[in-house]
Amino acid sequence: MARGDGIHRTSARNMRLTTPKLKNAQQHNEREKESYVNQDIVPERSHLNVHFKKPNGGYLEQFEQMEADGIISTRGIKVDAFRYGELIFDVNSAYFFNHGGYDFAKQFYHDAYQAAIKIVGGEQYILSAVMHADERNRAMSKALGQDVYHYHLHVVYVPVVEKQIRWSKRCKDKSLVGKVKETVMQVSMSKKWASKPVLDEVTGEPLKTAKGKPVLKKSYSVLQDDFFQYMREAGYTDVERGERGSSEEHLTVTQFKVEREQARLAELQTEKSEVQAEIGQLQVNKAEAEKATKEAQTELRLLAPKLKSMEKLAAEYSSDPEDLLPLPDRMESAKSYREKKSKPLLEKIVKVVRSVYRAYLDVCQKFELLQRKYDTEVPHLKKQLAEVRNENAKLQETARDYHRLCRAYGPERVAETVAAIKQQEQAEKERSRSQKRRHDRDAR
């Protein structure tokens, strides 16, 4: 399956079924239910589902007939044992979408069914094999603006191993004791999927641990290897093997979905923490800006009365000095009074007042700048904080939506849809770059 990296991976999962669970598997696979929990199933498309082996009756009835005909043996098997298995073969939806959809999926799963026959040990042990083509990939359909369906194959089978029945000591003919009496195909899930020894690639001998015990490869890993190898040999070289080191073999479907969901939820919580940290920093920046603005306003309020007095004084003494001088008295000539006393004094006063007036204009300009800065930056910070809070709320809602999607459709479907969208975007970018390069070459 796709893990968000744009790589198409084969997936083969083995489900172990008891008799009570076999009926539910039949109802789901053969579309016998009137309604389904999975609302992405489109009943109008169920006629497009493809049977590579159609059951000639109920699953249980077929099993009992096989037992009656001696094809299989249930000798020594408990009633509540895993008597049946179901293989689910899968590749992400984007893989089939990029290769043409339905017709390509039919051919792919026809070849996958041939692999299933080899894995199971013979077609006679398969109860049903059906490709589902009626399950809509809702997220991918919405993202691409067209219906996209998730194609996958269900193969229900009987797990059997060859077992030799030998003559016991109670046999009258003692020469036969210990010899093979008959060979039967024994129903046994545990032996069918027993772990296999890992062989040395050079010598072909079984590998052993430091203590001399054989190194075993888990049955789930063997299944993945076999399915991947069969599909590669069938010519599907653009898919990769399912991820190694997985414990999916021992998980039920629900457990597997919960595990994937918890991992994704942890990622969302990390993203949420990062956003909250950014919000905290923005709040600190906002507080510092508001503090600086208040300090500037306080200074301006203190300066305002002084500035008004300075403006009045400057306006009063900014006229020509000669207009401000009084008339000379009778003891002194007008010229002497104006040149020696009044004019020099008034020139000094006007010089000082004009200097103060220039300072006043400078302060006014700074005040206007601060006012504009306050009027622009503080609302911007408030708006930015509101946007971040809104984004955080949307992220939290997205996390809840993801939780709902995983419960309804499974984390695999969600992850593969994201990968498909990324791949589509990358393909569009590549086409755009290619067109630009051709245009540049033509222009030269």
UniProtKB/TrEMBL annotation:
Composition bias type Basic residues, residue spans: 434-444
Keyword Coiled coil: yes
Keywords: Coiled coil
InterPro entries for this protein: Mob_Pre
GO biological process: DNA recombination
Presence of the UniProt keyword Coiled coil in the record: yes
Coiled-coil annotated residue ranges, if any: 258-299
Region listing for Disordered, in residue ranges: 1-36, 422-444
GO molecular function: DNA binding
Similarity field: Belongs to the plasmid mobilization pre family.
Name of protein: Recombinase
Taxonomic source organism: Solibaculum mannosilyticum
Taxonomic lineage from the root: Bacteria, Bacillati, Bacillota, Clostridia, Eubacteriales
